[in-house]
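pasting for the record
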Amino acid sequence: MFCCLRAVRRLCLEKILLQCILQSRTLSGADAINALRPFYFAVHPDFFGQHPKEREVNENSLKRLNGYLENLQKPGFRSFKPTQLTFYVREREPNSSNVQESFSASGFRAVSFTLHTRDLLSTVLDILNSCSLSTEHIQSLNVNSQPHKEAKSTVNRPIKWDKTYYSFTGFKDPEEELEQAQRVETTLISWLDDNEASAVKKLKKSLPLRKELERLKFELSHQLQLSDIRWQRSWGIAHRCSQLHSLGRLVQQRPEVLKNVKGHTVVFTDRSGMSAAGHIMLGTMDVHHHWTKIFERLPNYYKLQKRLLFLEDRISQLLGGIQVIYIEELQPLLTLEEYYETLDSFYNKLCDSRLPFHPRSLRGLQMILESDRYAPSLHEFGHFMIPTVCDPATLQWFIFAKAQEARENLKRKEEMMITEKELIDTSTERFSLDRLYKEPSVSSAQMIDCCKRLLEESLPYLQGMHLCISHFYSVLQDGDLCIPWNWKN
């Protein structure tokens, strides 16, 4: 009887091994990239240029996904850590899958899913299915996608044994292992323990470049009398230094064209011009010739900016004194021309409707205009978010109905900002951090909650580190540690 059992056991193992080998060869790395083209088209950061929050989330999630796919192709890869990813998807078809999803303020569908597959084909199909994208094109790659149909509930293997088989033989049940892996959530302590050495190594390597970046930024700011130098995206330190060197060369070659930048902020971004906030935008893909044209046009931009401020004031008068503002962190990145057109269109609509707002009845309140929304709403920070296509009667009713709540939210915002800054300073000092900051997509309430819980922990790992509060775990290329604001203990 036992001889027979050993033979069955050996046969079973050989079949399982053969199945794994066959699966690992069903899809190559190049095939995987081709199969994921619809996914890349739906989530690629380059298509989210006017939505910095969504762009940053997709950019970081893609880095982690690429790392997962690379590991699957490594010979002898055995790690089985579930990886949770979040993407904002551009297509708006209804999703019938069971993945967690919501909609961002910009209308994009946020999809969250966990990867736990061990082969490229199953991983590719999981990604496409999670985002409600077609998988029909995979058949043209001459791979067999049939086994994956049961991958959601079972592990791909030739024979499904009864639970008593594993109890009797002592073998591990693959289904049970998968369920346990899905239930296990990464904790802050365990993740820091696993990634501290890698982060320290990258941070030490980046220190000379960080000093160079600070030197270049200080010298250019002082030389041009700039208010600040910023970056729209989370480029690496080396990339930022390269951009400052490029600006420095332009200063040496054409100093006369930069005489009008005094007191302004320069932002390195994806396109050149002047932003709706009045900042000078330098496109990182543009050459000096394009930058020179922007600097030469600054006097015209300043004139347009005055007209824009006048237009905001006129809208404010028509709406009972409510202040029209533009918030970089919450709104799409618009050029000055684009924002002026938005204001002008909204102003003409208000003039035609002649809404009966009492003068100065809404003083102290704030509103932002958004072209990608259809219904007005009130932000947790107290400002109204008004669609440019909003019906005037609906607008009037909504503002009157929410005015008191808006004033209360504005007051809480001031208190929250003070609390947030105090907690950041306390946390930085407590853990001897070199820097503590957050991504724009993390709200003040989330940052406060995160810092409060951090202060209850003993975290010697963080001494001298750069800590970014985000929505996921990651070690950036220059050694910054990213942790989710709602980390688990």
